[in-house]
Amino acid sequence: MSKRYKNQRSLSEAMNEFIRKNHLQKGMNKVDARRAWKEAMGPGVNTYTTRVELKDDILYVNLSSSVLREELSLGKTKIIKILNEALGKELIKKLVLR
Hints:
By secondary structure, the protein is an alpha+beta fold. It is 58% helix and 17% strand. The chain has five helices and three strands.
């Protein structure tokens, strides 16, 4: 086997190494958390979502509807579980609805 094929790796492996070497994981987690919220909560909730921000292990979500905020606050634990499953890791420990 030639040297070229010995050093060959998948694009995802190369991207993961780049992210790790350049300390970009925190930023990637923020993007992933926003995407997970959008996909998990669906268009109905996303209509009233004005901002989604991950700081450390807390997900802050701003909602324009106080009624929806109250409704979602009853299921925070379940929402956290759904989001972490979508992310494939225990990234979110607390959910703050504003």
